[in-house]
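Students often ask why we bother predicting the structure of a whole assembly rather than each chain alone. The short answer is interfaces. A chain on its own may look different once its partners are present, and contacts between molecules only exist in the joint model. In this exercise we take two input lines together and write out one structure for the complete complex. Read the inputs first and try to guess which parts will touch.
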Amino acid sequence: MRNRAAWLPWALPAIVLVTVFFVAPFLLNVRFAFSSWTSFRSEITWNGLENVRTLIDQDLLANAVTVTVLYAILCMAIQNTVSLSLALALQRTSGINTVFRSAFFLPTLISPLAAGYIWRGLLAPDGAVNSFLGIEWAWLGEPSTALVVVAFIDAWKWSGLITLVYIAGLNSIPKSLLESATVDGAGPWTRFRRVLFPMLAPALTFNVAVTLVGALSAYDVIAATTGGGPGDHTRALNVVMRQQWGQGFFGSASALGFTVTLLVIATAVPLVWWLRRREVTG
Amino acid sequence: MRAVLKYTALTLFAIPWVLVPVWLVVVNSFKPAGEAAELGLGLPRTWAIAENYGIVLDRGGYLTGLLNSLKVTVPIVVAVVFLGAAAAWAFGRSRSRWLQAAYFVMGLSILLPPSIIPTVYLLRALSLDGGSLGYVLTMTGCRLGIVIFLATGFVRAFPRDLEDAAAIDGASRPQVFVRILLPLLRPVLFVGGVILIINVWNDFFFALFLLQGSANATLPLSLFQFASGTLQSLNWNLVFAHVLLTTLPLVAVYVIAQKRVLAGLTEGALKG
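Now the answer. The structure tokens for the assembled complex follow.
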């Protein structure tokens, strides 16, 4: 069992599938992003930054990047606040907590697309939310609220799963640590800040990274709710990509996909580096 | 006293967070179109259950969608779990530099977003575009990374004595894999499998680009086509009936496996 070649067959199917269907498209994308490729001219030729320039000239790129980054930050903030609060409340495994955990997990089972339709209904100008609040407001139609609401829906969909990751993180903290902090006279807030929060760092970093990176690829909820509107206020990168693709501008669409990749790298590298550093020191 | 306060707060939070959205879908899927357009939370004045669900089953492409969703989800989950476990065994045990480099690439594939447009190009070049086989292969290639990553951590944490002992007793490698590795990896494969099922069943983005024509449409695609079919305003009663039917299979599986899902996700399979 110790000779080298003998392990290869076990990993080979996975390596082939990942190479052909993930790595190869990834490398091709670097080429297509800088190539002229449309439905009008199927020949793919190198054209440098032409796609990027066209997207900038059409005022599409800067807005899409801003919307995507804001969306990701909002999503991450809402999702982690809700999930961490729920996890702290439901940490102990008891009968009643299991019922609540189960209930809060339910939105995770709903597809982001369906979640979009559900909240579009709830937040309609004459919908249930407005009639409860006694106002009439087009949550998804007004530039000031559309992006926040769409990010909220995405966060709503995923919060159940993230809550469970936080609960796992909380349960991995030794009880003795909290007990000795209590004996030393630490109040609930001090215990949270000095003991729980630092010990929770791996789960926190994992969740922040996962939610940020996931939200940078946002598409489904936007497609089901605003379609990018009002105006271009929720037109994230993937939404523009789909539009460019639909219009036959495949090179520009690739450039937009590549922009998402760059944003993910710019987000993930510092986060992973920070996580590694914490693991070494603490 | 504090417990009473806590659970009151949790209940008050759960009502708008879970109960109202679910109720909205259920109750409005029972109403005729005009009444559902009000998007109220009251009981139907006229019940239209049979009509609504009849239309969704008939014109909404629900049954085709259900079959197509099963046809792609089952192979993807089976392939990812078993090929992932086999690869994780190799990555966890081999010291080969090449395999460690490949393992690093697997890790990158979790983090980086899949490049969908070159994927369409590639599938077209392989004559696999538009159909479910291309979709299955793509999803498998893009989702293997996470399961491999979780399971390799697990393999490394276990001493190899058991495997060595079995080999000395004359067990072949496939036998060691089936009798020792798979049972060992069961918790982490279960958790990975659950997340994968949710992820694949609900996938819309990949399906939108990779599956062509209503004959291949999975449930999210058929929901989108159905909802976008009416141009101006949505027929809320029908959309909600479709949403309910689309979500139901997953909820049913969850209700059956609920205890194990929650325990698996909270008690550490992710800790590695």
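Check your guess against this: The mean pLDDT of chain A is 89.
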